[in-house]
Specification:
It is built from twelve helices and no strands. By secondary structure, it is mainly alpha-helical.
């Protein structure tokens, strides 16, 4: 899953939310001494991120979507499905959340601003851009998806052609939408189980 889903699946705890997105900048075990500056809520967010990734990577609905794109995009098919699924979450937001989408985005932005000091320096420009350009809202639009893919494509080692993948989203739109509708409720249940076990409010 991409940014929007990871943040949504974090529930209401600010530090859990920050930790969830911070995981991409954390190497190795959560309890490694290098991560000693993180409190337990942030560490739980890191663990939740890894749970989400593991569940997503092994789900049959996600695999079916990746198989549609694999011949053209190879290993980058997984990246594309992550972003496409953020699109479906954005447009179907009210099906999964009682919190208005605008309020959620504001809460996310404030959470990162409040915990700015714990963010790795290399993460801060990304968060600044996310807030300034309202990335989470942009996932609901084709142009927003294309912009996100162009940014990722520039950072890939090999030519990925991901900047062209919005056309594939349009071609397979109903199929991907159907698979997302099968997958995401199960993803929520999995995350709610984690949140309950850790003593957090469920989604």
């Amino acid at each position: 899953m991409n940014f929007l889903a990871h943040l949504f699946l974090s529930g209401k705890n600010e530090e859990l939310l920050v930790g969830n997105l911070l995981e991409d900048f954390v190497v190795g075990r959560v309890e490694h001494p290098r991560n000693a500056g993180f409190n337990q809520e942030v560490k739980d967010g890191i663990l939740l991120h890894r749970l989400i990734d593991s569940f997503t990577d092994t789900h049959s609905a996600v695999s079916a979507c990746k198989s549609v794109l694999y011949e053209k995009y190879h290993k980058y098919a997984a990246v594309l499905i992550d972003i496409f699924f953020d699109h479906y979450l954005a447009i179907h937001w009210s099906d999964y959340s009682n919190e208005p989408f605008g309020d959620f985005r504001k809460r996310v932005h404030v959470s990162f601003q409040k915990h700015w000091e714990i963010l790795p320096d290399k993460m801060k420009p990304m968060i600044e851009s996310m807030i300034k350009h309202d990335w989470l809202k942009n996932y609901s639009e084709f142009w927003g998806i294309e912009r996100a893919l162009m940014g990722i494509s520039k950072r890939t080692v090999y030519d990925s052609n991901m900047e062209k993948a919005t056309e594939d989203l349009k071609i397979h739109y109903e199929l991907f939408n159907e698979k997302f509708a099968l997958f995401f409720p199960e993803m929520i249940l999995k995350c709610n189980q984690f949140l309950e076990e850790k003593g957090y409010k469920i989604i």
